[in-house]
Amino acid sequence: MRFLSTIFAFFVFFAGTVYAECKLQLPDSPSLANIRLGMTVDQANAALGGKPKLKSKGERRTNYFRFKQGKAKGPISGAKAFWVRFYQGRVYSVEIFYHSGYGDLEGLIETYASRNGFDVSLFETKHGYSRAKCDGFSVEADLILNPHLELIDTNVKELLDK
What we know:
Structural class: alpha+beta
Oligomer: single chain
Shape: globular
Number of domains: 1
Strand order of the largest sheet: 1-2-3-7-6-5-4
Number of helices: 4
Largest sheet: 7 strands, antiparallel
Helix content: 25-40%
Number of strands: 7
Radius of gyration: 18 Å
């Protein structure tokens, strides 16, 4: 009996949290700063309200913007740095570093999830990083430098990393 109690305690205390399996596919991915994966440059510019102005020429293009505190407006309000990456004219990555305002990692992912109708239980957190892995995309978050979120088309990223 003592042995069974020890095994039970191990699973309760050391097995960790059970995370939901993400069944969403790329077309169902959430947005970040109103930008969805697969958008064209015109669609992404419309989603941002035209500021900052994104460009996409050539096969690969990275747009990077840095903001002083309080200067980023609209869907990127609070941003310190903002990246939108294109491959073959379509968004494959959106990344934002915020100045502050989230307190802890759980607060950051809960805020993101609630604003985007995304299930917070899909995030797995280890060693200060949170990631929700789905079919064709992932959402990643951390507070290592500043509050940080990234939405990634994992199929394109794997292709480009080869």
